[in-house]
Write a structure and sequence with these properties.
36% helix, four-stranded antiparallel β-sheet, 338 residues
Length: 338
Amino acid sequence: MDAEKLKTLQIKPEARRRSQSSFWIILIGVVVITGVAVYLAWLRKEGPRRLFGTANRPQATNVATVPTPKGQNDAILTVSGYIVNRERIELSPRYLGVVKWIGVKKGDPVTNGQVIVLLDDAEHRARLVEAEGRLANARVAVEKAEIDYRRVEKLIADRIETQQNVDDLRLRLEAARATLREVQGTVDLARTYVEWTVIRSPINGVVVERLVDAGELVTPQSFGGTRGPSTALVAVADPKDLQVEIEMNESDLAKVSLNQKCRVSPEAYPDRHYAGHVAEMAPEANRQKGTLQIKVQIEQPDKFLTPELSAKVDFLATTRPVRTPSTNFDSPAAGATR
């Protein structure tokens, strides 16, 4: 009985060989997995180029990279300000009138002398016609006085007329001539008022604001109320004459001088740089803010510079020239992807 139990507990040789083969299979699997892990760790250390076989391929360059401008480290002071037009001209009528026609809108280019607004001129043309009629009568009066004076001069030579009559006619002629000059002035004034009904652009530039429409009442001065007539017609400015307006802290004024070279970078396009110089320094400071207003003239502005947007100004320690970027772009968006 005991021998039979021992016989059942005995491990057969076939089973022993099968268990040993499983052990070796597991051992080989562990070795392979360890080798793969070591190899992947080495590839991770060498980089992805060895993983994909691109170690000998040239690395692609970023064509959108913009080089740092020359003299980037020569700035002794950097201040932010706002781009402004050096001159913004608001055209106002010279007298109370009604807008008859306006031929421009915001953003339109204008040239020096171009007619942009017409005011109603019916009243002033009527006054001009009236003054020209009085001028014609004054000329007739002068002509008659001259004829009378020449006639009496002949009579006085023959001792027919007295000297008193001659003097009276001479004074009458002078009075007629004075009246003629007076009426001529009235005609010139009426003609001037008619000419003032035609509003022309004083510069080459663009319309930055249109303030009235046809049919509106305009006046050269405000009535003091919020519902009074407009005091300006349009505002024009030269887009090629721009400055950066800066409120400089008084602690930094020692670093700035008139005509000092600057570098201007608009906040909208920080990769674009423009040469400039200090053009104006206010004669008085702002006591409340402790600042002094300084204006930097942009020497070669282009369409990427928009008035009233912010810009950064680097005040340079040297007079090294700053290269102005090319303006051969179709739209401001191209400057952001250069």
